[in-house]
């Protein structure tokens, strides 16, 4: 009975996603520039789908491992590392360097930097901390604060004109993204998604906790280590593609929990992904048609997500 209700919810969310995506693509379409405008809008929708999948799936898995609905992968300091990479490029080689001006080179440098950082943190520190997830999180918070402080220090030393150019990297944007980067990121996210979906039932068992999972036959440490690496890759490629969106994962995954009222990950993964795509589409439409590109989409999502985060904290404190 409960599964039937959740299936209907998934169907409604799927129809809503398709309807909003169709509206976004067709609204105020100018037939004089159709061959430019239509592919551009379709590419944005595909990018939102890729980023929505990456952020939603990584956050669902991260909250399952940590058993905490307030934590997201951004707490590991990935956003700070991304900003540090962009800042150190400007600080050392300047804003005219291909490392910053060439989209493909900048994407590769950012993605490799984030993946190397997260592999070092997740894989090796996970072993060093004796597989204690919360000790790993604490180290991640410290490293994130460290890189954020370094970035702020360097930003105070650079030329104000260079800082204005660097500022564009601080906010996520779906405008003018290189087509080849969309498909490269899409292929990586699809590969990670296939790995997760091949054994997504194990997430239901891991959600019960380490002891229960081991008793039920899960190789807990190995499985969690593998999942942390998948989270690292998903967050790294999505951040390198559009920039950091801090509160999107927190917002959509908690909304999915409230809507579906279940522990089953087949509903949480799909529901969170659909909610993420809807949120990105609505945010992009607000940015384009209400604020006339004066406000970045990440500002709108972080504002809504930040308010929701405060509401969650107040609800938790009353329990």
UniProtKB/TrEMBL annotation:
Q: How does it sit in the membrane?
A: Multi-pass membrane protein
Q: Where are the transmembrane segments?
A: 9-27, 47-65, 77-95, 107-126, 133-158, 180-200, 227-253, 265-282, 294-314
Name the Pfam families for this protein.
FecCD
Q: Which UniProt keywords apply?
A: Cell membrane, Membrane, Transmembrane, Transmembrane helix, Transport
Of which family is this protein a member? Belongs to the binding-protein-dependent transport system permease family. FecCD subfamily.
PANTHER family registered for this protein in UniProt? FERRIC ENTEROBACTIN TRANSPORT SYSTEM PERMEASE PROTEIN (PTHR30472), PETROBACTIN IMPORT SYSTEM PERMEASE PROTEIN YCLO (PTHR30472:SF19)
Spell out the protein name for this chain: Iron chelate uptake ABC transporter family permease subunit
């Amino acid at each position: 009975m409960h599964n039937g209700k959740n299936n209907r919810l998934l169907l409604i969310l799927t129809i809503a996603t398709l309807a909003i995506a169709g509206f976004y693509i067709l609204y105020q379409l100018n037939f004089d520039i159709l061959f430019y405008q239509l592919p551009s809008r379709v590419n944005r929708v595909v990018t939102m789908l890729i980023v929505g999948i990456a952020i939603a799936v990584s956050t669902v898995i991260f909250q399952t491992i940590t058993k905490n609905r307030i934590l997201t992968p951004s707490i590991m300091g990935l956003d700070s590392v991304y900003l540090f990479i962009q800042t150190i490029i400007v600080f050392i080689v300047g804003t005219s360097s291909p490392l910053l001006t060439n989209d493909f080179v900048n994407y590769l440098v950012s993605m490799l930097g984030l993946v190397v950082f997260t592999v070092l943190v997740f894989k090796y520190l996970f072993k060093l901390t004796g597989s204690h997830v919360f000790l790993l999180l604490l180290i991640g918070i410290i490293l994130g604060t460290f890189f954020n402080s370094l970035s702020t220090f360097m930003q105070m030393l650079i030329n104000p004109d260079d800082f204005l150019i660097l500022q564009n990297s601080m906010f996520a944007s779906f405008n003018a993204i290189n087509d080849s980067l969309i498909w490269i990121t899409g292929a990586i996210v699809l590969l990670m998604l296939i790995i997760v979906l091949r054994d997504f039932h194990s997430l239901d068992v891991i959600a019960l906790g380490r002891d229960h999972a081991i008793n039920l036959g899960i190789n807990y440490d190995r499985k969690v280590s593998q999942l942390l690496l998948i989270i690292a890759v998903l967050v790294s490629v999505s951040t390198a593609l559009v920039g950091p969106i801090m509160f999107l994962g927190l917002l959509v995954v908690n909304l999915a929990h409230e809507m579906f009222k279940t522990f089953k990950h087949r509903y949480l993964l799909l529901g969170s992904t659909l909610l993420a795509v809807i949120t990105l589409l609505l945010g992009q439409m607000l940015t384009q048609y209400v604020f006339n590109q004066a406000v970045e989409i990440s500002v709108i999502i972080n504002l809504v997500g930040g308010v929701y985060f405060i509401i969650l904290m107040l609800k938790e404190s009353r329990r």
